[in-house]
Design goal:
- It contains four helices and 33 strands.
- The chain has 453 residues and is mainly β.
- The strands form seven sheets. A nine-stranded mixed sheet has the order 18-17-20-15-14-22-21-16-19, with no helix packed on it. A six-stranded mixed sheet has the order 2-13-12-5-9-8. The protein has a five-stranded antiparallel sheet with strand order 27-25-30-23-33.
- The longest helix has 6 residues, at 163-168.
- The model is unreliable at 1-20 (pLDDT under 50).
Length: 453
C-alpha cells in the first residue's frame, strides 16, 4: 500500500466580532474605550458624489458607535450650557443626535450629514428643578458615519458655558475624547504554507524520500507547498469588521470568494502538477505546465501543491517554487516550496595548490545516471578559498572524472592549502574517490582514498 505525503494544514475558524456597547470618552484604558476596527479590505465602495464624496460609510451596528461622555461640570438648575462633539478624520453620514436623561437637549448647529461637529444646548427639565451632576452621562448617536480609507475616526466632547464659547471652541469647562473607529489592513499578505520534497538518487531521481517528520512520500507523489487563504488574516485581525459594523472580515473579503487564477512559478517540465483539495490524495485541479496557471477557489479549501511522476520515465528536477494570485488583489509569496536531491558527500581533508605539488582528485561514478556535484571549502585563518572552474560539474555515468586542484580552487593569503567537501548527486555505493599528489622535486606520489558517505 502506498503512503501519501499529507500536508497537515486545516482551515482556521471564522473570526467573531466582539463590539463594545459604546465609545466611552472617559476611560484611559484602551480595551474599555470600545473602539471598533474596520478592515480596509472591507470598506466597500466609496461614496460616488455629493455629501461625503470619496469617503466610506460605516454603520453604527448595535449602537457600538454611540459615544458616551460625562458632563464633567455640574449644570445648575434652570441654567443652560452648551455641549459640542467634534469628529476628526471623518463626518456624520446621517443626522447626529445628543441625549441626556433628565435634561432638554436641542441641536443648535451641525449634526447633519457631511458635518464634522454638533453643538447642542442642555437645560435641566426635572420637576422640581435640580442641577445636573458632573457625573451625568451624555450620549451622541448617529446611524452612520463617513471615514477616509486610512487612519480612523476620533471624537472630542467639550462643555461650554455660552453658545459663543461653543462656536469658537474657547474656555471649555470640561473635555474628553476617544477613538471611535480604526481603519487597518487585516491582511498579512501571506496565503501559503511552505514545504519541500526530496527526490532520491536511489530511484535515479524518479521518486521521493522520507521527509523531516518521518512521513513517507509515495514512489510517485510529493507535496511541495500549500495554498491556505486563512493565513491572510493575522491574529491581530480577529474581530476586525466590515463597513456594516457587524460582520467579521474573512479571507474572501480580501481575495474574493469566487474561483480565480493561481500562478505557479518554477520548473513544471516534469511530471503532472496539480492543486489537490487539502492533501495530495484529494480531488485535484491541473496546473498548465506552460503557463503555471490553475483556476481554484482559494477561499474554499486548503490546497496542496503536488507533483506526480510516473516512477519510470519522469526524472525529477530540483528547484524552488513560488505562487501568486492573479486577481484584483494581486498577492505573491516567493520561494514557498522546493524540491531537492539527497546527495553523497566526498570529504577531502587536504588540498594544496603549492607550485611544487601536482594534486588531482579522481571521482568514479559506477551508477547509470550522470552525477552533478558542488564543492564547499574550509581554510585556515588568513587564507581565502575561491571556487575554480571545476568546483561544480558533472561526473558522467560509468566514468572517472579528474579534477586538478588548481582548477578546483584558488587559495589567497597566508597559505596554499585547505579542505573541501564535494556534494555529489549519486548513491554512495556508486561513488569512489581518491586524491593523488605528486611532488615534482623528487617525483614521489601520495595517494589517498577519500571518505564517501
Amino acid at each position: 500500500m502506498l503512503n501519501k505525503k499529507i500536508l497537515a494544514v486545516t482551515l482556521a475558524g471564522l473570526f467573531a466580532a466582539s463590539a463594545n456597547a459604546t465609545i466611552d470618552t472617559n476611560t484611559t484604558t484602551a480595551s474599555a474605550v470600545g473602539t471598533i476596527t474596520v478592515a480596509s479590505e472591507g470598506l466597500g465602495t466609496a461614496v460616488a458624489s455629493g455629501t461625503n464624496e470619496g469617503m466610506f460609510v460605516i454603520t453604527n451596528a448595535a449602537s457600538a458607535l454611540d459615544v458616551t461622555a460625562q458632563v464633567g461640570f455640574a449644570i445648575p438648575a434652570t441654567e443652560t450650557r452648551y455641549v459640542r462633539f467634534d469628529l476628526t478624520n471623518g463626518a456624520f453620514n446621517a443626522t447626529g443626535a445628543v441625549s441626556l436623561t433628565g435634561a432638554s437637549v436641542a441641536t443648535a448647529q451641525g449634526g447633519a450629514a457631511g458635518d464634522d461637529f454638533i453643538i447642542v444646548s442642555v437645560t435641566e427639565n426635572g420637576s422640581p428643578a435640580a442641577s445636573i451632576a458632573g457625573s451625568a452621562v451624555m450620549t451622541l448617536a448617529a446611524a452612520t458615519y463617513a471615514v477616509p480609507s486610512t487612519g480612523g475616526l476620533s471624537v472630542e466632547y467639550s462643555l461650554y458655558e455660552t453658545a459663543g464659547n461653543a462656536v469658537n471652541k474657547t474656555d471649555a469647562l470640561s473635555t474628553s475624547s476617544a477613538t471611535m473607529i480604526n481603519v487597518a489592513t487585516a491582511s498579512t499578505g501571506t496565503f501559503t504554507v511552505s514545504d519541500s520534497a526530496v527526490a532520491t538518487v536511489a530511484s535515479q531521481f524518479k521518486a521521493f524520500s522520507v521527509d523531516a517528520t518521518g512521513v513517507v512520500d509515495t514512489a510517485t507523489v510529493a507535496g511541495v507547498a500549500a495554498v491556505d487563504a486563512t493565513k491572510l488574516l493575522s491574529t491581530a485581525s480577529a474581530g476586525y469588521l466590515l463597513a456594516d459594523g457587524a460582520t467579521s472580515v474573512l479571507p474572501s473579503n480580501i481575495i474574493g470568494a469566487a474561483a480565480q487564477d493561481v500562478i505557479v512559478t518554477g520548473n513544471l517540465s516534469f511530471g503532472d502538477w496539480a492543486f489537490h483539495n487539502a492533501t495530495c490524495a484529494g480531488a485535484d485541479t491541473s496546473i498548465d505546465a506552460d503557463t503555471g496557471v490553475a483556476n481554484i477557489d482559494v477561499d474554499a479549501n486548503v490546497w496542496a501543491l503536488c507533483v506526480t511522476v510516473d516512477g519510470t520515465d519522469d526524472v525529477v528536477a530540483k528547484g524552488s517554487y513560488s505562487v501568486a494570485l492573479d486577481g484584483d488583489n494581486k498577492l505573491s509569496n516567493a520561494n514557498i516550496g522546493s524540491i531537492s536531491f539527497d546527495t553523497t558527500s566526498i570529504e577531502i581533508p587536504y588540498i594544496t595548490t603549492f607550485k611544487d605539488y601536482n594534486q588531482r582528485i579522481y571521482i568514479k561514478n559506477t551508477g547509470s545516471v550522470d552525477a552533478s556535484f558542488t564543492t564547499t571549502f574550509v581554510t585556515e585563518s588568513g587564507t581565502t578559498a575561491t571556487a575554480g572552474s571545476k568546483a561544480t560539474g558533472t561526473v558522467p555515468a560509468g566514468e572517472i572524472y579528474t579534477i586538478k586542484a588548481t582548477d578546483l580552487v584558488t587559495f589567497t593569503g597566508s597559505t596554499t592549502r585547505g579542505s573541501a567537501t564535494i556534494e555529489i548527486e549519486a548513491e554512495a555505493d556508486n561513488v569512489t574517490a581518491t586524491t593523488q599528489t605528486v611532488n615534482s622535486s623528487d617525483s614521489s606520489t601520495d595517494t589517498v582514498t577519500l571518505v564517501v558517505e
